[in-house]
Write a structure and sequence with these properties.
single chain, 220 residues, mainly alpha, 0% strand
């Protein structure tokens, strides 16, 4: 990964992990713990693609495996987030633009359910039966609810930061119609990118018209 991707990913992952361990895990909510780390991996994978998403997911999961009060085998959550990051990166189109929130929200639903099932499955293979005592159905439901509530406030911001640090010329050429703009504009009827592009075209036409008038005056 490029250096700007690496630095941003490390900073966001560390902040998400600190908030999750020191704040969200202490709320004592029923069922699962809101997974801010998962949402951070999703937001970065939506912009950076499957390869970077899998690497970020593996690193984030490994940090979560080693950070206290982790009580499971190291590498377990790293495997889960590596798979989730890769699959989430596949949602990203070739041009890196998502014009609605449907695809990322569907990915959040799939990631919340898939990560819980995969984590429980890997735990069953290594002899961890904690999910059985809590109830897998309760974990799935609460994980889905918590992640869906957090996603609109976290994923668009992470995506916007990722695109800004990318300095992507495609984003400028398309008038800023990036993945985060598409997420925020969906459901409102607003076409943010189209409006910006229209304003730029109109400004260019005005400049051309003024230049033509100035040339006509000079010729006279």
């Amino acid at each position: 990964m490029r250096i700007n991707r690496t630095l941003l990913s490390i900073a966001l992952v560390v902040v998400a992990l600190v908030v999750q361990v020191s704040v969200l895990a202490r709320l004592q909510l029923p069922g699962a713990v809101p997974d801010l780390l998962l949402l951070t991996v999703l937001g970065l994978a939506f912009v950076y693609g499957p390869v970077s998403g899998s690497l970020i997911g593996f690193g984030a999961g490994l940090l979560a495996d080693l950070a206290p009060p982790a009580d499971h085998a190291a590498g377990r959550y790293a495997l889960v987030l590596c798979v989730i990051g890769y699959l989430a990166g596949l949602v990203r189109p070739e041009n890196g633009q998502l014009k609605s929130a449907f695809a990322p929200m569907a990915a959040v639903v799939g990631a919340a359910l898939g990560s819980t099932l995969l984590y429980a499955g890997v735990g069953a293979l290594v002899g961890d039966t904690a999910a059985r005592h809590v109830g897998l159905g309760s974990l799935l439901f609460t994980a889905l609810v918590y992640d869906l509530l957090l996603a609109p406030f976290t994923v668009p911001l992470i995506m916007a930061l990722a695109r800004r640090t990318e300095n992507d010329p495609l984003s400028e050429a398309s008038g800023g119609n990036d993945v985060a703009a598409g997420w925020l504009a969906s459901g409102t009827g607003l076409r943010i990118g189209s409006q910006r592009g229209g304003l730029r075209v109109k400004a260019a036409r005005n400049r051309a018209a003024r230049a033509g008038r100035i040339k006509g005056v000079k010729r006279l």
